[in-house]
Every structure is written in C-alpha cells, then in structure tokens.
Amino acid sequence: IFVGGLDPNVSDDVLRQVFGQFGELVHVKIPVGKRCGFVQFAN
Q1: d(CA 8, CA 16)
Q2: What is the pLDDT along the chain (43 residues), one digit of tens a residue?
Q3: pTM above the 0.70 mark?
Q4: What does each C-alpha distance from 27 to 1, 4, 17, 35 come to in angstroms?
Q5: CA–CA separation, 43 vs 35, rounded Å?
Q6: Closest Cα partner for 39 from 22, 19, 21?
Q7: How far is Cα 16 from Cα 1, in angstroms, rounded to an integer?
Q8: How many Å apart are CA 32 and CA 36, to the nearest integer?
Q9: CB neighbours (10 Å) of residue 8?
C-alpha cells in the first residue's frame, strides 16, 4: 500500500503501529528524504 503525504517526522515504527492493527505486516519502508511510505501486509 502506498501511503503519501506523510509528515517528515513519521518513522517506519509509526507506520507499523498504525497499520499493524489491521493485520500482519511483512514490510514497512519510508524512503530517505521522501514524504511517502510503503506498507505490505501478509495477506
């Protein structure tokens, strides 16, 4: 899942906390210097 418009202070850990409540996460990544991230669920 693409997550755009992130605040510069949002970390991978914050995305894990927010999206982890909806299912098992396989991968969470915020590219350096970008205001977007990617979240991958197991299912």
Answers
A1: 16
A2: 999 999 999 999 999 999 999 999 999 999 999 999 999 999 9
A3: yes
A4: 10, 16, 13, 17
A5: 25
A6: 19
A7: 13
A8: 9
A9: 8
- What single-letter DSSP state applies at residue 23? S
The DSSP-derived string for the chain is: -EE-S--TT--HHHHHHHHHTTS-EEEEE--TT-S-EEEEE--
Q: Letter for the amino acid at 13? A: D
Range of the domain at 30: 2-41
Tokens, residue 39: 């979240």
d(CA 8, CA 20): 20
Q: Provide the CB-side half-sphere exposure for 15 (13 A, CA).
A: 26
Total domains present in the chain: 1
